[in-house]
Amino acid sequence: MNKYRPITERIHDFKPVEPAPEEGWLKSELARCQDCGIPFCHACGCPLLNAIPEINAAAREDRWNTALARLLATSPFPEFTARVCPALCEGSCVQGLNESGVPCRQVEFSVIERGFAEKLLRPRPPARRLEKRAVVVGSGPAGLAAAWRLNRAGLRVTVYERDARPGGFLRYGIPDFKLEKSVLDRRISLLEEEGIIFECGVEAGEDISGRLLSRRNDILILATGARKKRDLPIPGRELSGIHFAVDYLTAQNRLLNGEIRGIPSSLEAGGKRVIVIGGGDTGSDCVGTAWRQGAVSVCQLEILPKPPETRSPDNPWPEWPRVLRTSSSHEEGGERRWSVTAGAFIPAEGNPSAVGAVRCSQVKWVAEGGRQVPLPDGNSAFTLPADLVLLAMGFTGTEPGQILSSFNLAPDKSGRLPRDGEGRLSLPGLYACGDAALGPSLVVRAIADGLRVAERALEHFTFQAGG
Ligand SMILES: Cc1cc2nc3c(=O)[nH]c(=O)nc-3n(C[C@H](O)[C@H](O)[C@H](O)COP(=O)(O)OP(=O)(O)OC[C@H]3O[C@@H](n4cnc5c(N)ncnc54)[C@H](O)[C@@H]3O)c2cc1C
Questions:
Q1: For the segment 202-244, what is each residue's pLDDT rounded down to a tens digit?
Q2: Which sequence spans correspond to the domains of the chain?
Q3: Atom 9, ligand 1: which residue's CA is nearest?
Q4: What's the first-to-final CA gap in the chain, in angstroms?
Q5: How would CATH label the architecture of 133-227+396-464?
Q6: CATH topology assigned to domain 231-393
Q7: pLDDT tens digits for 359-387?
Q8: Gap between the Cα atoms of 315 and 91, Å rounded
Q9: Is the CB of 397 under 6 A from ligand 1?
Q10: Closest residue by CA, ligand 1 atom 27
Q11: 7-117: CATH class
């Protein structure tokens, strides 16, 4: 396995935990890729359909430029996925039948970073500019991918972003120790040099009317994400010291970005006992951030049972393995507890307006109406001390907002923007992509969806224009 930086060193900074892969190790891993008869990684695993066997073969034979060309043929921003993708391809790697999958994500890292180091990633503006305009609302990975594709086709593309800087969760969610923001800035500069205009600090629908955007543009794509946070409305929720994980992570990212001088003390973990409610990736990012801020203790609670160490019989290869995952943040310390639900937040002794503990109980998962539901076990109640509680239970879907009302749009029951199979919404020329339409997902899926929807939009547009 590619090694992370030593824990004693890395928890004192926010620099990437994962160094560039060591070449000798990578080559020996790549050798394992060559024996595969039928590759499942690229069609079954990768949403971008990256030609992984070809990329790996070229890298193994030191044909790095070929590897780069093959990678860029399907993936516009491999430097993001090379750092944060869970590597769905590795889950369906044939080698994974008997041992670990080939580390395709690290190969991708070497290919793209070599490309940048050798200055092969130069701006490629379109050969011909069309007198046609497109707007993308939202600059997360889906919006960036859609904008990139439309710009390549020669449209004049503007991206509206309500945050101060582009990137969506790439910038304000994912911590620097997983994705350093210089990597994002490097790509945004390239996109700007290729002709895409970023209008940041502008909330579409509020600061500029949706109807106006639609009238003035030939294509309008909503890539606004799934940002409605899941709350935990239990007794004591009003106490201070209880925050949404994404607000906590955003504050740290804004500090490192130089957007703020300091983090509000309520959103700082230094010297505090931290409880993270939610066992997913966002929760794990909170764990790593809390250690770096100097937390006294960190405990992460998950309502689901502890996953098995290896695939269970109902989760065969080449499905994504639903097994216990230990992130770099988990390695850094703290406790993880499974099958636990929080029932109430308890005020702190001496400060009744602040949280001082979380009352929890174990849950049993029982079948009810054809599905599994958690049943708190009343005899298992326990209390965990807490000075800071972070709610990392995910997102329930698209936020309501003026941009949706402008087009009489409302999310469906699952919180997604209801689009047709081509990505179209209610008006001609209006599309949705990324988490806004898929529900909370992954960077790689957001990029793939942004590309697909932009492609469909171009096809419809060319068809209508008779081109
Ligand atoms: C903490 C955290 C960690 C994660 N870690 C990983 C990971 O390691 N690997 C992985 O694959 N995925 C990860 N994810 C998930 C991944 O980040 C998302 O699936 C992905 O960012 C979705 O992309 P998107 O472009 O659809 O939406 P977003 O990234 O959410 O971007 C939407 C953008 O739209 C903007 N916007 C919304 N409304 C308006 C408006 N009216 N006007 C202008 N702008 C607007 C928002 O400000 C935002 O910038 C993580 C998510 C979080 C929260």
A1: 999 999 999 999 999 999 999 999 999 999 999 999 999 999 9
A2: 7-117, 133-227+396-464, 231-393
A3: 84
A4: 51
A5: 3-Layer(bba) Sandwich (3.50)
A6: FAD/NAD(P)-binding domain (3.50.50)
A7: 999 999 999 988 999 998 889 999 999 99
A8: 11
A9: no
A10: 225
A11: mainly alpha
